[in-house]
Amino acid sequence: MRDTGVLRVGYAVEAPYAWVDDSGNVTGESPETARLVAHALGARRIDWVQVPFDALLTELMAGRFDVVAAGLFVTPARQARVLFSDPTLRVGAGLLVRVTDAPAAAGPDPRSRPGFRVAVVLGSVEAERLAHWLPAASAVVVPDVQTARAALLVGQADAVALSWPTLARIAQGSQGQLVAFRLPVWPGAAADHVAFAFHPEHPGLRDAWNLAQRDVLGGPAHLAILQRFNLGADDLVRPAAGAGARP
Question: What is the reported pTM?
Answer without folding.
Answer: 0.80
